[in-house]
Amino acid sequence: MPRISGIDLPLDKRVDIALRRIYGIGPVNAVKIVNDAKIKFDIKVKDLTEAEIERIVSIIREQYVVEGDLRKNVSQNIRKLMDIGSYRGTRHKRGLPVRGQRTRTNSRTRKGPKKTIGSKS
Fold first, then answer.
1. Is 80 contained in some domain?
2. Could you tell me if residue 10 is inside a domain?
3. Nearest 10 degrees: CA dihedral of 14, 17, 23, 27?
4. How far apart, in Å, are the Cα atoms of 42 and each of 21, 53, 68?
5. Domain range spanning residue 99?
6. Helices 87-94 and 67-84 meet at what angle, rounded to 10?
7. Nearest to 19, CA basis, from 11, 28, 6, 9
8. What is the C-alpha separation between 47 and 77, in angstroms, rounded?
9. What is residue 118's predicted lDDT score, i.e. its pLDDT?
10. Domain count of the chain?
């Protein structure tokens, strides 16, 4: 099983689909990587040779920030927003939606399950 950037790629999938398992590589970047490595699109991961895997690894290493480094960059950016006290930073601190969504209804993913305050009597 090929291991790229610490991620085991599934053997039965096409190369461009399997590369999406790596954090930081989406559909567009996966297609670019396959084109740059000069690999056919219909080839599966199990059919890759060692040379092709090395080409993919070198392209990812040289051109993309992925996995741990990217996660660290994102968390540092969020921490910086919180430290400077920006509106987005305070929304992150409070666990509320950051990008202008409404909170009167919806936003249950961000806020968590409903908490009953008390009964009116």
1. no
2. yes
3. 140
4. 18, 15, 29
5. 85-121
6. 110
7. 9
8. 39
9. 77
10. 2
Torsion of CA 32, 33, 34, 37, to 10 degrees: 120
Q: Are 59 and 10 in contact (CB under 8 A)?
A: no
Find the CATH number of the domain harbouring 63: 1.10.8.50
The CATH number of the domain holding residue 103 is: 4.10.910.10
**pTM score, two decimals?**
0.81
Residue 77 lies in a domain: no
Mean pLDDT for 14-27 is 94
pLDDT tens string 57-98: 999 999 999 999 999 999 999 999 999 999 999 999 999 999
7 has which bridge partners? 4
By CB atoms closer than 10 A (0-12, 13-18, 19+), residue 105 is: exposed
* Spatial distance between the Cα atoms of 4 and 91, rounded to a whole number of angstroms: 35
Q: In this structure, are 62 and 90 located in the same domain?
A: no
Amino acid at 96: L
